[in-house]
Amino acid sequence: MLAVNGGTGTPQQTASATAAAQTFAPSRSEEWTRGRAEGLKVQVRSKLLKAKSGSSAADMVMLVDTLERLGIDNHFRHEIAAMLHRVHREQQGCTAGSDDDDDLHITSLHKGSFRASLSSDTRGLLSLYNAAHMAMPGEEALDDAIAFARHHLRSIQGKLRSPMAEQVSRALDIPLPRAPRRLETVRYIAEYEHEPAFDGVALELAKLDFELVRSLHLRELKALTLWWKDMYNSVKLSYARNRIVETYFWTCGIYHEEEYSRARIIFTKVFGLMSLMNDTYDAHATLEECHKLNKAIQRWDKSAVSILPEYLHVFYIKLLNNFDELEDCLEPTEKYRMSYAKTGYRQLSEYYLREAQWSSDKYTPSFAEHLDLSAMSSGFPQLAPVVLLGVRDGDGAATAEAFGWAAAVPALVRASAELARFLNDTASYKTGKSGRDMASTVECYMAERGVGGEEAVAAVAAMAESAWRTINRECVEMDRALLPAARLVVNLTRMLEVIYLGGRDGYTAGADIKDLLLVNLTSTMEVVYLGGKDGYTFGSGLKGVIADLLVDPVHED
């Protein structure tokens, strides 16, 4: 399963947000902060209206990009839509040789030729590198663009100054189109004042908005930590990974905005329940117990607890009770959604059982046979509808049609599932896996092609890149009405790049992403007014609290 699969290892204690959330004490009230933010929104909105009528297409695109990277674009959706509509209309009449095309490097992207002058233009190289990662299948010319930009960015990386140095470093790790928005926001806020087109009003709004959202995240994490502590201590499955903070961190990468609070709570809980099931199949249960667990899950009735070994009784009852409680969180017209979550959980159990059988039989399938099963057991096809489960209908993401689309495992979801499997298996291969795991895609490729591990890892990495291109194509070609749902699913996919960066498994080995958790949940944001006479700081004291709680005695050196 994505993020809850890939080697259980020794259970590790994770961060408790309770103490951290209690430590959080902003020196200004939330009411004051919200009032100030609303006033700043009026000023930014006015600037957007002026830009729409008097700026060039290139300037408008840069402005939209800035708002997105600052994490405040959600407050100006109508204004941004109007600006992009104008840009689209103007670009339809543009010729390929216009100055704006040169500024945006559109000519290079379309023709596959890269001017010598671009090699010394760091900002242009970075734009080219990021834009080329929006390639779709068949656009091989963009492979040359990526290679060209990557080569020159690496050659000058050691000579760059802040903030360009940090932006290039991040892009070389994870290209901007694949980077989770929330993580980019916390870094870009710190860098934005050094940008040529720096706007103090937008920056202050971004800092205020970040802190308001972070305060809500800490309250949610406190509640989820208490829920998980009760769950984990009650089920007494000591072999299972204790990963509620890492799970919530992943969830915030899907949707961080305040309006998605219910969705975050529901998704995190379902993810946690899937993780407990995965670890039972993968790390502890005998094959006979796996069959019994699957039989009980397919029945989905408390009377089926008698089928199970005693150590799974509490888990099974808690599982059913929690799904009932999640359904109670939904409005009467939304309750049909729970059927998608239950069906997905049952399906995942079936896939885990098949994997357990393969492992027991020491069966090494063909690469294609393996991927047919392991893409589905990655958990991604089951989590895609769960992403929408708690989303309110206001933005058009959680429609009945969207649930049907997500549950049918369309090409976008299938490609994301394959990407999850490729990244997970690469991490498992690089870090070593428990003896109970079945053969990975890397090992199946090695056996089938008769190649070594390094060559197999490179081949699987190329398949992961191909999966991203399929995702890009589907986002362009799909029904526009499904785009709001698709964006959330792609956000779930983006978090894979962070969790598995460099071959790590940041879910199983939580200490590997400790710094990212600290940045996302405890970054101090100092907000200084334009006159420079007033300011305040949020979040002091949190870093030490969470850092201490995140220390992993098993994996820390």
UniProtKB/TrEMBL annotation:
Residues 1-36 are annotated as: Disordered. SUPFAM superfamilies: Terpenoid cyclases/Protein prenyltransferases (SSF48239), Terpenoid synthases (SSF48576). GO terms for biological process: terpenoid biosynthetic process. Residues 10-23 have a biased composition (Low complexity). Keywords: Metal-binding. It holds the Pfam family Terpene_synth. The keyword Metal-binding applies. GO terms for molecular function: magnesium ion binding; terpene synthase activity. InterPro entries: Isoprenoid_synthase_dom_sf, Terpene_cyclase-like_1_C, Terpene_synth_N, Terpene_synth_N_sf, Terpene_synthase-like, Terpene_synthase_metal-bd, Terpenoid_cyclase/PrenylTrfase. Residues 229-469 form the Terpene synthase metal-binding domain. The keyword Flavoprotein does not apply. Residues 23-109, 111-172 form the Terpene synthase N-terminal domain. It comes from the Eukaryota. This is Uncharacterized protein.
